[in-house]
Design a protein that fits this description.
Blueprint: H1 28-45, H2 48-71, H3 78-84, H4 90-130, H5 136-149, H6 155-177
Helix pairs in contact: 2-4, 4-5, 5-6
């Protein structure tokens, strides 16, 4: 009769852990390879350059989508439309409208991407330096990012932009970190 102390997790040598139900010993190599790739992906997603790039690309996509949605309101005035598109057939009008929508989507997407990448990069650097994940990181990153974005308008605007972006970042982070309601 073997004695097993209570509440102690069993220890297995590395690579000899029990397999999940339905897997055989032949599947062990594939599982270990998948685990290795999963570790690489987790490490990559925790790095500041990847977080910055993901935020930039996501911002580009969201900005382009917002511009696409708002461009539908740009052609409401029939008199304006007649004066800017005089002498064009329907194909030329449609081509011009789509070109203008594309330019607007690119411009707005670049702006959103720049803001997203700037904020995410700064927040990641602050979080890495402080080695904490709390409310100070997004507020400080918002202040710095807002100041950087408004730097060309002078020091007063940079301070105001930093404070406004910090307040916005705090509000968003408070909303995201809120406790879920207790459903008793």
């Amino acid at each position: 009769m073997s004695f097993s102390p209570p509440l102690v997790a069993p220890l297995f040598p590395a690579g000899r852990e029990p397999l999940p139900p339905g897997f055989t010993e032949e599947d062990r190599a594939q599982l270990m390879q998948a685990k290795k790739y999963q570790g690489w992906m987790a490490t990559a997603m925790e790095s500041c350059p990847v977080k910055t790039a993901v935020a930039g690309v996501g911002g580009l996509g969201i900005g382009a989508f917002f511009s696409l949605m708002s461009s539908s309101f740009a052609y409401e005035d029939p008199l304006l439309r007649q004066s800017t598109q005089a002498g064009m057939n329907n194909t030329q009008k449609a081509r011009e409208i789509f070109k203008e929508m594309g330019r607007g989507m690119w411009k707005t997407g670049k702006g959103f991407g720049k803001v997203g990448a700037l904020f995410a990069g700064i927040e990641c650097v602050i979080e890495g330096y402080r080695a904490k994940n709390d409310m100070v990181n997004p507020i400080a990153a918002g202040f710095v990012a807002g100041g950087v974005l408004a730097r060309n308008s002078g020091p007063k605007a940079a301070l105001g932009g930093g404070l406004a972006f910090a307040a916005f970042s705090a509000a968003i982070d408070l909303f995201i970190r809120r406790e879920p309601p207790d459903d008793d």
